[in-house]
Amino acid sequence: DAGVTQSPTHLIKTRGQHVTLRCSPISGHKSVSWYQQVLGQGPQFIFQYYEKEERGRGNFPDRFSARQFPNYSSELNVNALLLGDSALYLCASSLGQDGAFFGQGTRLTVV
Amino acid sequence: AQKVTQAQTEISVVEKEDVTLDCVYETRDTTYYLFWYKQPPSGELVFLIRRNSFDEQNEISGRYSWNFQKSTSSFNFTITASQVVDSAVYFCALSFGNYGGATNKLIFGTGTLLAVQP
Fold first, then answer.
1. B12 touches chain A (CB under 8 A)
2. Which residue of A has its CA nearest to B4?
3. How many helices (H) and strands (E) does chain B have?
4. Which of A5, A32, B19, B37 has the most CB atoms lying inside 10 A of its own CB?
5. How far is CA A67 from CA A7, A53, A64, A87, B27, in A?
6. Contacts of residue A92 in chain B, CB cutoff 8 Å?
7. Which residues on B lie below 8 Å from A95 (Cβ)?
8. Is the distance from CB of A7 to CB of A89 less than 8 angstroms?
9. Residues paired with residue A53 on neighbouring β-strands, in sequence order
10. How far apart are the C-alpha atoms of B94 and B114, rounded to whole Å?
11. A84-106 pLDDT, tens digit each
């Protein structure tokens, strides 16, 4: 069975641009969460979606948005990129309380 | 406030030594879940274990063991006979609430970098 898959794996963008990151959860998992991990820190929660509805949002500006599709895949969008948005973006899927399973992440560099 | 503290920033050991990674958490919820994840240089977070707040039984899985003590709000992780492949950043995380459909958002500690020298 495939795990959580994210695309792209690496991305370089210029300040002010927009970016879309994609995530496909483990088959059967209905919840997808997004995390931002800045170098040297633990992951910080951005969004959680369950059955296509937003269930939680972390302390991130409105430039960050997300959605979940009928097949439970998800997109994270970031507008007006800042240098400080450079980070590893992790997607996790879950089913019940067994835990969250993470993808390999998208490493975003803003120049 | 919900918080996870991993006071050890870096630990260096020699292969075959035992090593314990500390994790202290704060929460006012009575239902919560504790996790450990391993993050190798590739970046992917690898799930190691989940514990719920009603189960204080310690767990052993091969060379890994976990000690959960509610009295001290700690969930420590021990690697016995460490190996070079154990080198990674290890994160402790907390999730709270009783939503059955999915694991709620995780609150991570800052991580402990474990370096196992040959």
1. no
2. A42
3. 0, 12
4. A32
5. 15, 8, 11, 20, 29
6. 45, 106
7. 102
8. no
9. A50
10. 20
11. 999 999 999 998 777 889 999 99
Is the confidence at residue A1, as pLDDT, over 70? no
The span from the CA of A26 to the CA of A94, in Å, is: 8
Tokens of A110: 């803003």
B106 touches chain A (CB under 8 A): yes
Residue B101 near chain A (CB below 8 Å): yes
Residue-wise pLDDT for B24-83, tens only, equals 999 998 889 999 999 998 889 999 999 888 888 888 889 999 999 999 999 999 999 999
Using CA atoms, how far apart are residues B28 and B55, in angstroms rounded to an integer?
17
Q: What pLDDT does residue B100 have? A: 61
B68-110 pLDDT, tens digit each: 999 999 999 999 999 999 999 999 999 986 566 677 789 999 9
Give the max Cα distance, chain B: 44
Is the bond preceding B41 in cis, omega lying within 30 degrees of 0? Answer: no
B106, B110, B112: best to mutate for the A interface, most A CBs within 10 A = B106
Rounded to a whole number, what is the distance in angstroms from the first to the last CA of chain A? Answer: 37
- pLDDT tens profile A26-61: 999 999 999 999 999 999 999 999 888 998 899 999
Encoded tokens for B15: 């292969």
Cα A97 from chain centroid (whole Å)? 20
